[in-house]
Every structure is written in C-alpha cells, then in structure tokens.
Specification:
The complex is a heterotrimer of chains A (256), B (129) and C (382). Chain A has two domains: 2-103, Ubiquitin-like (UB roll) (Roll), CATH 3.10.20.30; 106-251, Alpha-helical ferredoxin (Fumarate Reductase Iron-sulfur Protein, Chain B, domain 2, Orthogonal Bundle). Helices cover 34% and strands 15% of the residues of chain A. Chain A has nine helices and nine strands. In chain A, strand 3 (63-65) and strand 4 form a beta hairpin. Chain A is elongated, with a radius of gyration of 21 Å. Chain B is built from five helices and no strands. In chain B, helix 2 packs across helix 4 and helix 4 runs antiparallel to helix 5. By secondary structure, chain C is an alpha+beta fold. In chain C, the strands form four sheets. In chain C, strands 3, 4, 5, 11, 12, 13, 14, 15 and 16 form a nine-stranded mixed beta sheet that branches. Classes of the chains: A alpha+beta (256), B mainly alpha (129), C alpha+beta (382). At the A-C interface, helix 1, helix 3, helix 4, strand 9 and helix 7 of A face strand 2, helix 3, helix 4, strand 16 and helix 8 of C. The complex binds flavin-adenine dinucleotide (FAD), iron/sulfur cluster and FE2/S2 (inorganic) cluster. Residues 51-54, 56-61, 71, 73 of chain A line the site of FE2/S2 (inorganic) cluster (FES).
Chain lengths: 256, 129, 382
Amino acid sequence: MLTVPVEIFRFKPGQAQRYDTFTVEIAETAHVIDVIDTVWAKHDPTLTFRRACHHSSCGSCAVRINGAEKLPCIVRLTDVWNGRNPIRIEPLRNFPVVSDLLVEVGDFFERMSAASMTITCEAEGFLPLTVDTFAVAGVLPKTVELPDNLSRFNRFEQCIECGICMSACPTMATDNKFIGPAGLAAIYQARHKTDDPTRVKHLLGLADGEHGVWRCHSAFECTEACPQAVDPASKIMALRRELALRRLRKMFGLRI
Amino acid sequence: MSTLNYSKTRQAARWFDVRRRKAGMWAYALNRITGIGLVVYLYLHLGVLSMLIQGQSAWDAFVGLARSPFYLALDVILLAGILIHGLNGLRLAVTGFGFSAGAQKALFTILMISGGIILIAAALKIFQI
Amino acid sequence: MIERGEVAFGTTGRNHCLLHSGGRYCVTDQESAIECIDENLILRRIMPDLLELNDGLFVAVTESDLAFKERFLEGCAACHIPAHEVTVARALAMEPFLNPTILAAIQIPDGVFEPFRFCLSFLATALKNGATVRTFTEVTDFVCSDRNPTGVKIRDFRTGKTETIGGDIIVNAAGPWAGEIAAKAGVSVPEVPTAGVMVALDCRLNNMVLNRLNKPSDGDIVVPQRATSVIGTTSWKVEDPDLITIPPEHVERMISQGEKLIPTVRRVPMRAKMAVARPLIAMTGTDARELSRTFECFDHARDGVNGFVTITGGKTTTARAMAERVSDIVCQKLNHKAECRTREVPLTSYRFFFERQNVLKRRALAQLQTSDRPNIGFEERT
Ligand SMILES: Cc1cc2nc3c(=O)[nH]c(=O)nc-3n(C[C@H](O)[C@H](O)[C@H](O)COP(=O)(O)OP(=O)(O)OC[C@H]3O[C@@H](n4cnc5c(N)ncnc54)[C@H](O)[C@@H]3O)c2cc1C
Ligand code: SF4
Ligand code: FES
C-alpha cells in the first residue's frame, strides 16, 4: 500500500477555481483512475469526473496528469508519482470546464460528426497498440490470410474520441473552430473508406476549408499525446499532400 | 450551465508553453519566438536604413557603433534567429506536405545541430572583424 | 433519467463488452441463453455501426472440454443459437495466436460492443423522443406519501443544487446499487453485488471472441476489442460496489487461465486491469458463479409500496429487453396502451447525446430551424 497525495483541480459554476489536496491509501499496482475513484468514493463524492471502461476504449476519462494529457485508466500510479510531490490532476485544455475535471464535449463530438467519423472499420491484420508492443513481447504481428468464403474481420477505429489531441494542440488554443487533429484524422479515415467522387469531394473540401488542414502549424503534439497511436499529425500531412497535388494538377489543366 | 473559459491572451500564451512537451512543440514555440523577433528586426532594420536620408555623417556614426562587441553579439543572436527560423521552415515545408512526417523529430535535431555548427562558425567570423 | 455520474458510470461502462450469443449459458442457464441470442439479433439490427461482429469460438483445450462438446452443441440447438464446428486447422488460420494444441472449435455468433457508446446511443434516441437525462445528479432520498414514493430528492454535483422531482412511477435501475436505492424507499431487493476482474493487454491477440468450451469459470474468455484483448473474469461477492479492491491473485489467475487459450498472453504487457460488480439476483444457489444471469422486474406493490418498480440482474446484451419489460409494466400500471417499438427502431448516433446541447443552444439562437443534424459551421471549400 502507498499513501499518495493528489492535487485535484476544482471548479463549480459561480465559484472560484482551486486545487484540493487529498491523501489516498492505494495499492502500488493501481492506475491513476483508481486514485481518482478512491478520492470520489472515500473522500469527496461531489468530485465530478468521467470514466467508464477503465481500459482505454471509451475515451471518457482523459485528464491532465502533472500537466500532460493522459488516460488515467492506463497510466500506472508509479509512473507519474515521484514518491513525494502530489500528483496534479486537471481537466483537459481547450474545452470549456463544466465542473471539476468535467469538460463540455459537445463541440468536439460535432466535429467528429462533421468529419464523418464512423466507429467500425475493416481490420488491417493485427494492429499493435504501441509500435513496439510486439517487439517487447517478442512476437511478430501476423496478418491473417482469410479463406475466401469468410468475410473480412472488422474492428472499432483506433480513435476513441478522447479529446486528448485537442487539448495538446497549441493551435487549437487560439482557433476554437479548428476542426482539430481527431477530426482531421477522421476525415482522412473516411476519405480512405470511400471511392465515391462526391463523398471524396465533400471530405477534401472540408479538410481544405478555413479551419481545416492548413490551420495546423506542425507542433506534432497530437501524435505525441494520442494514447491510441492514431497519429493524427501524419494524417493531416497526408491530406495536405493530396490537396496540394490536386491543386497542382488543376493548375496544369490535368484531370483530377 | 456557466462554464469556465480562459481569456484569449491566456490561450495565446499556450503557443509558448513547452512544459512537459516534446520536440515538435519546442520547434513550434521557437519558430514563433524567432518569427516575432525577425519581424521586429525587420522594422529596426528599415529604421536604420532611413538614417541614410540624414546624410553621410549620421550613417558613419552608426556604422562605428555597429562595430562594437555589443552590436556584434546582437548580430550573432540575429543570425541564430534566422537559422532556427529558416532551417525549421525547411523541415515544415517537407513534413507539411506529407513527406517524412514521422521523421520530424529527427529532422529537427539534425537541422538544429547543423544550424548550431553554422552559427559557431559564423560567430567566430563575425568577431574576427 | 437520473444518473449520478457520466453515462455508463456504473457496471455497464466497465463490463467485458461481449455481445453474448448465449453460448456461455446454453448448458447451465438456458433462460439467459435464449434472452441473449434474441437480443443479440435485435441489437445487430438497431445498432449495426456500433458492433464488432467477428463471431466467437468455443475451443476445447483439455479432454474434459472435449467431453463437453456434445452437451454444448445440444444446448445451442435447444436455445436456437446457430453453432457449427470448425476444423482445428481453420480455427488456427483465423486465430494465429490461438493455442495450437486445441482439440476442437465451435463457431457461434458472439460479438463485441462498446459500452459507453452503447448507452449513449440508447439515451440519444430517448432524448430525441422527449426524455430528459440528468447526469452527475444523485438520488439522495425519496419523497413518500404514506409508504408510496411520489418523487425523489436529487443533488446535481455540477452545481451543488438540490431539488425534488415528482413522478407517477419511479423505476429503480441502479444495477448493483439497486438494493441501496430500494432501501431508501423502504423495501428490499434480493440482490448480491458480485464482482469480477478483467485484464486488458497491450495489444490485440485475437480476431474473434475466444471461450473455453466448458461451463463458465474464471478466466475462460478473451474478448478482443479495438486494439486490446481483455481476459476475464472472476466472481466474488462484494459489500460496496463503489470501490472494489482488485485481489492481486485474481490478476495472476486471469493471465494463467488466459494463457491456456492464447499462450502469448504472458509475454504481452498489461494495459489495464479493472473490477466491477454484477447486479445478480440472489436465488437459492450460494456460489457466486451459480447465480442466474437472467433479469427480474420487481413491482414493489407486492411489498405494499405503490408506484415503485425495480429492474435488475441481466446483462448489457439484454439491456433493451429489460427496458422493454419495465416499460410494459409501467404502461400497465398507468393504464396506458402502447406497443414497445425498440425492437425495430434503429438508434440515433451516440454523438447526438452530447451534440444535443449545442443543437438546443443554436436553436435558441434561431440559427438552426429545422434540422437536427448538427452543423458547427465548417465551411467547405469548393
Ligand atoms: C466483470 C463483469 C463482466 C461482464 N461482462 C459482460 C459482458 O461481456 N456482456 C454483457 O452483456 N454483460 C456483461 N456483464 C453484465 C453487465 O455488465 C451488467 O449486468 C449490466 O451492466 C448492469 O447494468 P445496470 O444498468 O443494471 O447497472 P449499472 O450499469 O451499474 O447502472 C446503474 C447506475 O446507477 C447509478 N446509480 C447508483 N446509485 C445512484 C444514485 N443514488 N443516484 C443516481 N444514480 C445512481 C450508477 O452510477 C450506475 O451508473 C458483466 C458484468 C461484470 C461484473
Ligand atoms: S486521435 Fe487520439 S488523442 Fe485524438 S481523440 Fe482520437 S484517440 Fe484521442
Ligand atoms: S475509462 Fe474509458 S478510456 Fe479511460
């Protein structure tokens, strides 16, 4: 058992913001979400925070731990606690704070809808979560060759709509209409799921808009912070390449 | 329900907030700082050039001043800004069109190291004059 | 709908995400098994975009598993669960990480859902049809006239405000907390919160849901989801479902049992571990595993309390059926004639749950007149 101090951001409408410090008794093997749960269950039931799945699938629990955006359900306590200073837990940035760790996600989900994010996709063999996971485990990712009479397997998209990339993005801080890393990555995915020229035109048009890919100023923080290896930055750049090539071709009168 | 929102200035300050961030964010912040610095320099430069209108003597006096070690040091800082901004601009032009976006960190390191070497060489040269 | 946390804050959010085909219960608990397969087919129709539909395999690892095969196939047939045996070679072709020494494999129509979005899309549909959903709001007490509840006292954690709201009928659907809520209304519900541990791995090792071909036991199932594989579960009775301490030996048991299905399991780092309590209905059986997984609706008129109904037990897979049962009872009590249509109506996008606030805001600003389709106003360059 460990005795861990945590400092949690508190805010209620009409009141000043502050940090509350709690000291929780918790197992060494605990994750940060267990710390938040313990604070809520044992110390202060009025603490508002989100969580559901506890295994990085719902995307609701995202917060900042010691300043960096993380999913507390997959961050081990011992990885963020130095044994002395309190662990600081704050809500995501670039989202309006409703109360405590709870942020307003309506705008974010509107972006994801506008970007035509669908949650299922066709499986691409076995996708390792972190690039070197398979290396750590000493196994090679195997792609499944399926017999013809079996349909392809499907998967949920890697993106869990946690909003971490939106919080990590410095450009997002000053353009609240920026579609944002997750939205642009979703446009990229949607664009690669379709061949229909009108759909493609619509999706690329969205990416090309005033608050689309050209707003990105390459801090690459989305890719660094994304817990699901979505790599939004590369997807934004790939969209830009496609858009630029299309424009070039158009300039020289070539058919798109 | 009333929510907590931060002021525009506080949000804009995030451009320079590199705490707990990675190389990409350092590049981003440096690019912004050097960018602003270079714009300021451009206006100073235009101001200095306008001294030419005031005739030969005013200009000669300024050139004398510009040879002082203090001014030479400023020149080195200026060059550092140009190198950071310019070389990083190359990186952004390459990655920004979808080439080697995955290698952005390595590119940043390589370019900044070469920038550093150029800067040292140039500084030696400047102070030799 | 009053919920003290975010949507799916309770058991549903943290479960194993298996869209049951009923295979797990077709021998031991056929009533649940039939409920599961029926609902499985309905959910495929009403939320097709929210499911990973890759089927499941029941594999025999030991001789005793193999001996179970006939009973399993008979059970499936009795519960109209489409099951067919596949050759070991084919099973291994589909599942390259599966234990190569398996003796038999049976394919059944299991699936995987995503609990948070599962709940959100039901609630989004309810919102669209006029429901009010209040999250981060706790029921603190009941208001009663004689012994009959006529309303509840609630506290909104976001604002700290308390209020009283009235209701003709109050439905208690608090899962493992149903007993606690019922006690506030002065009645008791025979419920046993029974916890289970799950372990999520740092990469996905299977395409299909993998089960041991045997009676349900600890760590006998590996459910793949998104980019992870989740091994589960165990079963023990708990007092307080709010905070369950995970016994370390349970985690080890998950790994050692999971290893029998997928030998690579031990070499893969653990991504997360979690525990949560099932709302099981206490029956004569004493062992936690033996408790039935079916659901039950209690009309507390039988305890002399009117206007209060508890729905509990069941599975996430059967959530819709539970809602259907309880709404039928509510309609009957209110003398209201209406057909439950949730079997047919495709659900609204889960995002609508969060977007609705914005839609309402904008509608208030008279910027959005007719369409419910949100549009944040991203221009499209042509
Ligand atoms: C380990 C485990 C694995 C499982 N795996 C599966 C599976 O793979 N597939 C499957 O179909 N099923 C599975 N189940 C079963 C399933 O998860 C549960 O039966 C189901 O989620 C119960 O849902 P519920 O709505 O009744 O309870 P809950 O989801 O717990 O809902 C009750 C809600 O009431 C709220 N509440 C409590 N008190 C108050 C109050 N005072 N005021 C306001 N709100 C309050 C809680 O916050 C909670 O959100 C599993 C269960 C466990 C334990
Ligand atoms: S792209 Fe990554 S960080 Fe952004 S919302 Fe999706 S999962 Fe979260
Ligand atoms: S609780 Fe679901 S992602 Fe963390």
